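Quick question, first post here. What does this chain look like in 3D?
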Amino acid sequence: MTSATPQPEASATPKRRPGLLRLSISTPLGWTACALALLALFGLFHLLGWRDDTAIISGTLSTNHPDATIARGLLYGLSYFAATIASPILFIAAAIHALMTRLGIAPR
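> Answer (accepted):
Ran it through. Tokens below.
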């Protein structure tokens, strides 16, 4: 004879995500967090020395592992453009939204 153990009831409310995972991409704080994440990613790639791998743009491979060199060069290039183009736009948009909210003219 088997005894059935009572199972806890499933909660109707979803679990809350911790910390930064709760940020919405559609808020100024989320825009700022995304901009900082893009800058941090670019900084990490730069510290890892992936800048040298951007030589693939001119058709030069500097190592015996061309696949890794191409991947690192492309990731570095994409992160560079994201850090120099997207991050400032996100920071400026967040600042404009914060100013408009402070002045009482921000859309709801």
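DSSP finds two helices and no strands in the chain.
The helical segments are 28-47, 66-103.
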